[in-house]
Design brief:
Distance between the termini: 25 Å
Radius of gyration: 17 Å
CATH class: Alpha Beta
Order of helices and strands: EHEHHHEHEHEHH
Shape: globular
Helix content: 55-70%
Largest sheet: 5 strands, parallel
CATH superfamily: Flavodoxin domain
């Protein structure tokens, strides 16, 4: 069986998207993948962070528990799953450093054959769909083959348990698709080598 590595990168202010990232990790493991969880840091100042209840405590705890993504994580990964609150899109300061890492890795040819997808916190509606479109588009623009999330089920996205289940299933699906693509690429390389 082919080894499969999934990098889960998330932005979370008060912990909801972190829970979803952990659900994605479970789904990826169910898809028989190795995982790494990475947290993108917010560029917001202390005054802004302290204005949202629970953000400062969550930020301090997550800074202790998770490291920020590095280019070596992208090189290691066969698939990248990015998670963000619905109100924080790919153009935000939170994602700029990570997307720059993705762009650098892509320009060095390190993303060839790799898969990407995105999920958002349970907000539902147009904001969630536009955030997903922006983040998936940003990953595709930088060279990843994007697996679009399944159709949003309004019964699921408005409840935390439904959102956790949806993200877990999405990550498992991404692991399975990535494994199939990786297997096809290996067979293609073996065939090319044999015919040489």
């Amino acid at each position: 069986m082919l080894d499969l590595n999934v990098l889960i990168v998330f932005c979370s202010h008060t912990g909801l998207t972190e829970k979803l990232a952990l659900a994605a990790a479970v789904g990826a493991v169910q898809g028989r993948a190795n995982i790494r969880l990475r947290h993108v840091r917010t560029p917001a100042g202390d005054q802004t962070i302290e204005s949202e209840p629970g953000w400062k405590d969550s930020r301090d705890r997550m800074s202790q528990e998770y490291v920020t993504p590095r280019e070596t994580d992208l090189e290691w990964a066969d698939a990248v799953i990015a998670g963000t609150p619905a109100r924080i899109g790919a153009a935000s300061g939170e994602w700029s450093e990570f997307l720059q890492l993705v762009e650098t890795a892509g320009s060095r040819g390190k993303l060839e054959g790799k898969v990407g997808t995105a999920f958002t916190g349970a907000a539902g509606g147009t904001g969630q769909e536009s955030t997903l479109a922006m983040l998936c588009g940003a990953l595709a623009k930088r060279g990843l083959t994007v697996v679009l999330p399944g159709e949003l089920d309004s019964r699921n996205v408005f409840s935390e348990s439904g959102a956790l289940q949806t993200v877990r299933l999405q990550a498992r699906r991404v692991a399975e698709i990535t494994r199939a693509l990786k297997r096809a690429n290996c067979l293609k390389q073996d065939s090319a080598t044999a015919s040489s």
